Amino acid sequence: MDAHDRTRNRAAVEGNSPVAPQDEDALLARASSYASTVDIAVDLDAVSWEISDRAKRRAGVCLYDGDGSVTIRLTWDAYQSYGWTEFTDVIRHELVHAWEFQQYGESDHGERFRRKADEVGASRHCRTFAEPRVRLRCTDDDCGWTADRHRASTVVTDPADRRCGTCGARYLVEHVETGERWETKNEYENARERIGDEW
Ligand SMILES: [Zn+2]
Ligand SMILES: [Zn+2]
Prior knowledge:
CATH class of the largest domain: Alpha Beta
Distance between the termini: 54 Å
Largest sheet: 4 strands, antiparallel
Order of helices and strands: HHEEEHHHEEHEEH
Helix content: 25-40%
Bound molecules: zinc ion
Strand order of the largest sheet: 5-4-6-7
Number of domains: 2
CATH topology of the largest domain: Zincin-like
Radius of gyration: 21 Å
Structural class: alpha+beta
């Protein structure tokens, strides 16, 4: 093994390989190989890895089937928003859940969880990454002001009489999930109907 290989191997072990996974298959492969470098007594042969491209709030979830088999489901959008290095924390956190499930048949975020999470340097709480429901955008291209909103307040449902927080121009509201846009209460109501369950 030459010095270059050693460097590359160490980078892979630390999860800091310069090329971050670019697609879901690459993320799955990297996550499961990263998991084997985390110092925790999880039976990885009994762990399946999945990607969710629909989850909107939780960065990851660990599911247990009751007989030792665990599924860790990682959220693609969370990975996109955190980047690989920060995302390894999500993997460590879910591995602590996997460890508790395999050792004790149950898992929560109690004292036992917190101790193990500290040991492997994982966050103690399930990470959420809330993708905003809507984004306000200034209509003046030179301005570039945006603001994220989660709730359907009047700022969102009735934007006509309100103005950009920076330049005072009108703004439009964009529904992040579907790309629907509106600038008035009327348009909002029509868009809301088209969006339906995807709101
Ligand atoms: Zn958790
Ligand atoms: Zn503006």
